[in-house]
Each structure stands twice: as C-alpha cells, then as structure tokens.
Amino acid sequence: MTILKLTLKKLRQTILMISFILLSGGAGWWLGHRDVEVSLQNKAPKIHIVDRTQPSGKSDVNMSLFWEVWDKLEAKYLMRDKLDTNKMVYGAIAGMTASLEDPYTAFFPPKENKTAKENLNGSFGGVGIQLGYKKGKLAVISPLEGMPAKTAGVKAGDLILRIVDERKNIDKETTGMSLPEAVEIIRGPKGTAVKLTLLHEGEEKPYEAEITRGTIVVPSVEVVFGKIDDEKWVEDENGQITWLKLVRFGENTDSQWDEAVDKIKRNKNIGGLVLDVRNNPGGYLEGSVNLAGEFLSKGELIVKQERTIGVTEQEHSVNRLGRLTEVPMVVLINQGSASASEILAGALRDHDRAKLVGEKSFGKGTIQEAEDLRGGAGVHITVARWLTPEGTWVHDEGLTPDVGVEDDLETEDVDEQLVEAIKQLAIE
Q1: pLDDT interval class at 34 (50, 70, 90)
Q2: pTM, rounded to two decimals
Q3: 129 with 196, same domain?
Q4: Could you tell me the sign of the dihedral formed by the alpha carbons of 55, 61, 64, 65, in that order?
Q5: What is the CATH number of the domain that holds 413?
Q6: Which pLDDT band holds residue 100 (cuts at 50, 70, 90)?
Q7: Is residue 3 a part of any domain in this protein?
Q8: Percent of the chain, pLDDT > 90?
C-alpha cells in the first residue's frame, strides 16, 4: 500500500468568487488522538484511522467528544451502508471550516476541488452562472452572456433560494449551502435540466427558472473596435473606440490580454478605450495587479493587503511599463463585477485614471489562499482583506460608479451603459 504524501505547492492568492463558474506542512488532518491518512489502493482513495498522540501545540484541543460520537455512529447507526469513513472525515473537515462563518473559507473534497480548478481553466457542462454570496446568502454574481441562465432571465444579484434536479433526486433549499455543494448540484451534462428558485434584488416574490444545461466555454478577454451610431454600438475595424471586455481573471488571461493589447496598439485610430469588467467575478490577485499596470505609471499603488485588520502588511504597486497609459479610458462596472475586477477598477478610479460608469459592483473584499491537500482534496482560506489605494474596503458595499446608469433590459439592441461610457470619453 502506498501512502500518498502531501505535496506542498506554491500558494496562489486568489480573490475567490471563485469564480465558481457554473456553468453553473502538515503530517495529516489531525483530529485529536488519531490521525487520518489517505492511501491509494486499486486506484481508489481510502481513508484509514490510525492511533496517534495529540500533535504538538494542540494539547488544549479536546477531541474526545468527536470520537465519542464517531464510535456511537459506528456502533448504533441503523443504515450501516451509509457509514462511509471518507465522507464522514470530509464532512467533519467541512464542518470545521464552516464554523468560521466565512463562506469563502471552505474545504473541497477531491471531486469538488477538481471542479474549482476547472472554473479557472476550461469548458464544461452547466447553466452559465457565476456564484458568490450576498450578505451570507447564495447569489448569482453574474449570468454569462449567451448562456442558458441568461436566456432564462437570471440576473446578476439574484438570490438562489432552492435547487431542484429530478434526475439527481435533489430538492434542496440553499440556506447554509456551501459553494462547492451548489456547484456540484447545478453543474451537469449538456441537455439535462435543473430548476432554480430565485429572487430578483429589490423584489419580494421569487420566481422559478427551469434551465437546460449547455456546454460552457468562458473566454477571458475580447477586444472590439467600433463607434456609436444612433445610440447603438456598431463594430468598425476603423472605429476610434476600443471596447475591451475583460470577462474573468484565470489561467489564460495574461496571454489573451497580451494578444488583445497588441491588436489595440496596431490600430492607429484609437481615440479612447472602454474597459468593461461587467459580470467579471474575479480570480487571481496577481492578474488584477498585472493588468492595472497596463494603465498606470510605474510605482503607483494598486492595492493594499491587510492580514491583520488595520495593519497594512503588503502593498502591490506597478512594477512594469504599461502600454496603454496615455489612452483616455472609462471603466464599466455592474453588480457582477467582483473581487479582482473591483481591485482593478478601484485602482484606476483612485488614481483619476478612469471614471467608473454603470452600477454598484458586487463587494468582495477578502483574499483567499488555495492549497492542495493529499488525496486530491483542497482548502481555500481567507488570509487577508484588500483595500483600494485610498483605503476603501468594498466588502459587502461595492464600488459606487461616478456615473450611474442602469441597463434597460427592455432595449436589448441598445447597451445604455456602453453608450454612456463612450459619451464620457467625449470622442466626436
């Protein structure tokens, strides 16, 4: 039997929404006088309980009640086939992280950890929504354009009250539901259906949306040249306006961003740029810092980081020469703009580099570290909070736009927020 040892990987700080895109060291997990080891046998992870002494530094932690309940379950529980030690240990660890009452600090069993990584990388079956929390309640950060949820009328900011999947025999309210669990339920094969009970922000009566899953592919960056003609956006390769859409911060964002900026630099007619981070749920902190450096001068502060509230322990500043520092610009935000996109927008606003146009952003002001554990599991831990250069903490409050404009859903062929952003550029 080969013991799968914990491999410590470089921690990447993330501003985790995580983008739960649904389309939509240690010697072990110490639990008291016993330890948990994960081994591989016949290619299936198995958890074994072995006697261990109390780990150093944990002598004040009394685990006797935990093991008392464990032993009683093993001895007395009626449905013996439900006693799965893997699930019991995973559930105990999940409960430990949940006790912190921070929805962004969470334990991920192997399957859910794999799903979380897919959120930043690939394509998969789902409904096309990105999840987070609004004041502790499961909420839609944003529906992805052209995806099933958007077509079904789901909006950014909607609370998700209930999830039903008859095929999986699931009918659950979302109170107390973790992001990994919500992801697992809502995702599924293309062509299958899931029913969501949702509540639009500001309304009292919920509504139901039965959504057929599709294949979700999430790009990071898109650049379009054009102009406004009769209050409508018209694509035009010779247009003076660059509409740079930043959809997310993921594994491939930097390379796609460089391609987009190269394309912009080749166009000699550019008179102004609209950076669109609407419905961008965030991702890697490093990504927001890197992209902010494209528009700001070297040495300018981008974001402050506090591991102890009130004590700035780290500052991230521009450390490179940006290629778009002289182009007039405006930033578009809405309720789906969260975390890393808020860092970027907040830095550009605080340095008077760009006005913010649109709607108040989501409000996600904490930083998580994602760490892989043995057996394919993982944990995301809130380790810090971030503040804009002027010291604003956006958590639960969001960024307020300089120019507020609501998107009128009745006028699908007109993007009022984009039109207003271009007006703010004052391009004739």
Answers
A1: very low
A2: 0.69
A3: yes
A4: negative
A5: 3.90.226.10
A6: very high
A7: no
A8: 57
Instruction: Note the pLDDT tens digit of each residue in 279-298.
Output: 898 888 999 999 999 999 99
**272 and 327 fall within a common domain:** yes
**Beta strands of 69-176 (E only): which ranges?**
106-108, 123-126, 129-134, 137-143, 159-165, 170-173
- Torsion sign across C-alpha atoms 241, 245, 249, 254: negative
- Selected residue with higher pLDDT from 60 and 34: 60
CA distance 342 to 281: 9
Question: How many domains are contained in the chain?
Answer: 2
End position of a domain, from candidates 188, 217, 246:
217
What is the end-to-end Cα distance of the chain in Å, rounded? 72
Final residue of a domain: which of 191, 217, 243?
217
Strands 355-358 and 329-333: parallel
Cα(308)–Cα(265) distance, integer angstroms: 42
**Catalytic positions, written as ranges:** 339, 350, 364
Q: What is the pLDDT of residue 123?
A: 60
Asked whether residue 232 falls in the same domain as residue 186, the answer is no
